[in-house]
Write a structure and sequence with these properties.
GO cellular component, one term: plasmodesma
Mean pLDDT: 90
Catalytic activity: 2 superoxide + 2 H(+) = H2O2 + O2
Structural class: alpha+beta
Shape: globular
Order of helices and strands: HEEEEEEEEEEHHH
Number of domains: 2
GO molecular function: manganese ion binding; superoxide dismutase activity
Main location: secreted
Strand order of the largest sheet: 1-2-9-4-7
Strand content: 25-35%
CATH architecture of the largest domain: Sandwich
Subcellular location: Secreted, Extracellular space, Apoplast
Distance between the termini: 39 Å
Number of strands: 10
Length: about 220
């Protein structure tokens, strides 16, 4: 019950922080537009399906921790329009991120949304970087909130000895996620090695080493 109350509080905070005129998604023009995820029609969002049900507005995927036995030691579980078709045109979504001790949600951006995280358990060192290359860092713990402005590079790191978890709220039905290292070093077709070498002031061998380390 306490967790549900915290989630409701966080969603209220998101809606209060992001004014209507700054919503990432366009305003809805009808009561409902449940996404037809199987349609071949291409629109900005998803076309509406004919008959909606309660299942279109329900998702239980954030109830359990995600698996963190991976290279980064973290796992994001999205709850956006692709999991909840009823979110189509509503301009909001959630996610749960779990972190093993030492786990990192690596530097990334959400091109279509501001993010607000609420710490369910544990503690994290977080931060975002402005377009002036200024780091805005903070250590946060259970019950606390932190905001990552839309489009800015940000990260979360669990430097503790116990697992941590957050619920993230977004002012978009599909905020998008672009992990910086993966975008640059695992793109297909690949970013030319000479571009990466010059950008990072490293040699071709170092470029290939990074690519091999990030390969799926």
């Amino acid at each position: 019950m306490a967790t549900v109350s915290r989630l409701i509080m966080m969603i209220v905070v998101v809606l209060a922080i992001v004014p209507k005129t700054l919503n990432a998604d366009p305003d809805m023009l009808q009561d409902l537009c449940v996404a037809d995820l199987t349609s071949d029609v291409k629109v900005n969002g998803f076309p509406c399906k004919e008959n909606e049900t309660a299942a279109d507005f329900f998702f239980a995927g954030l109830a359990k921790p995600g698996l963190t036995n991976n290279t980064m030691g973290s796992q994001a579980t999205p709850a956006n329009v692709q999991q909840i078709p009823g979110l189509n045109t509503l301009g909001v979504s959630l996610a749960r991120i779990d972190y093993a001790p030492g786990g990192l949600n690596p530097p990334h951006t959400h091109p279509r949304a501001t993010e607000v995280i609420f710490v369910l358990e544990g503690a994290l060192d977080v931060g975002f970087i402005t377009t002036s290359n200024v780091l805005i860092p903070k250590s946060i713990k259970q019950g606390e909130i932190y905001v990552f402005p839309r489009g800015l590079v940000h990260f979360q790191k669990n430097n503790g000895k116990v697992p941590a978890a957050v619920i993230a709220a977004f002012n978009s039905q599909l905020p998008g996620t672009q992990v910086i290292a993966a975008a640059l070093f695992t793109a297909a077709p690949p970013v030319p090695d000479n571009v990466l070498a010059k950008a990072f002031q490293i040699g071709a061998e170092e470029v290939e080493k990074i690519k091999s380390g990030l390969a799926p």
